[in-house]
Amino acid sequence: MLSIVSWIVLVAFVAADKLETCDLHPKIEERIVKDTAAWGDAGITEDLVKSVSKHCDTEARIRQHYCNCQPQRILIENGTVYLNNLIPRHRLGPHEHIGLLVELYEVSQVYKLPNVEFTYWLDDHPPGETNYVFSGSGPHGAPRATAWPYEPRGGLPPMVAWSKSADNGVLMVPYSGAFRCAKDSFDALEASLHQTAGVAWADKLPLGFGRWNGFCTYYYGMGLVRSEDGQAVPCPRTYLNNVSAAHPDLLSAFDLGVAKPVPLAHQNRYKYIISTDGWSISSKFDKYLLLGSTVFKAASIRDGFYYDALEPNVHFVPFMVKHKDDIVEALQWARQHDEEARRMAEAAREFARKHLSRPARLCYLFRLLTHLSKQYRYPVSCSRRKLCVPLAQELRYYAQDEKTKDTCPYDELFDKYGATDPLAAPDADRLREVSVMHLDPLHWPRDDL
């Protein structure tokens, strides 16, 4: 077992070897700078951070609504990532939660991270309480007010989510579970590009293809997405059934209640791939960009972390923009301008490989945390929190628990970094201790009290 002195020396040695810089696409960096500037001169106070604890203010609320299953509180100190609350075991398993934790751990091993703390919102939609209630900036550089109901009322606790609309103040992170944990993940698809690239453009079928579950997110149902003709955009996932039936020579985009599924890796046989939002942004859109086909993307009010860097009609073809049926015109254009459509497919693949690969995502998280760290107006430290579980130990627990052991390939992390991370090898007693904590649905420390 390492002595305290040896542990400090080892951590210092490892930290000294970590990267301290990287470069992002200018538009992606610009978005980070803009979003992390939302706190203005006032910055992020400790009261704002601790106000997230009020989200679960009574035992009854926790037990009845499981509200501690949505916010995952995270603190980084001296390069080590800690968790300030633990999600109950019965809600563990989905890669949406675990994927970002895996990616954060790898970032902490590759880059020298600043001290920060924030909340990761485990849902397709960030909370409505982080929506801005008016546009523009407050006086003297003060932050814009939000609907946040807790004290400091109208503030904006630092929070991350994998998508948002323009009127929400959360910071965006990659949908890491879909990028690296799913069986048909972006990383797995990128590793097999020699196979998907094997279908020549001339051999692809000149047909728009799409398959998805037949559900619709709320912002279409509420008429929040509008086309240029002023009409509400219908739910693409169900409406395209009708368009496909009317134009079978152009389009085969159906929900799975109408047509059989086709594996993602086989969809590259079509020249045109259709993408729509699911409950929020599509976790497959990123992968479609790799397929070497021209991607058609339905209008939406949701953004992902890299969307600002994508150019319409350069990397993808937008539809449901002029009117609800303009995909017909768009597909006809693609057929008539085959070389332009092919170049667009190549531009999309080049963009994805350069800006969405794992190294690019790690760089993104490092840059996001670096800019965010400039906003804190108090010393970020585990000594100020009631619970700080090292992320390395949490991931070791996930790797051996029946509910989570197959969620993500943890071994590739620990095989690569375990030998140099003293926290990555907890003994059996510590793993049992972490396991017991996950059985307590009240494991939501009230740091605000």
TrEMBL record:
Entry keyword annotation includes Disulfide bond: no
UniProt key word Transferase: yes
MF term (GO), any: transferase activity
Signal peptide positions on this chain: 1-16
TM ranges: none
Assigned keywords, A-Z: Signal, Transferase
A family per Pfam: Glyco_transf_90
Domain of life where this protein originates: Eukaryota
Ranges for domain Glycosyl transferase CAP10: 112-379
PANTHER family, alphabetized: KDEL LYS-ASP-GLU-LEU CONTAINING - RELATED (PTHR12203), PROTEIN O-GLUCOSYLTRANSFERASE 1 (PTHR12203:SF35)
Record-stated family: Belongs to the glycosyltransferase 90 family.
Name listed for the protein in its UniProt record: Glycosyl transferase CAP10 domain-containing protein
Source organism (scientific name): Chlamydomonas reinhardtii
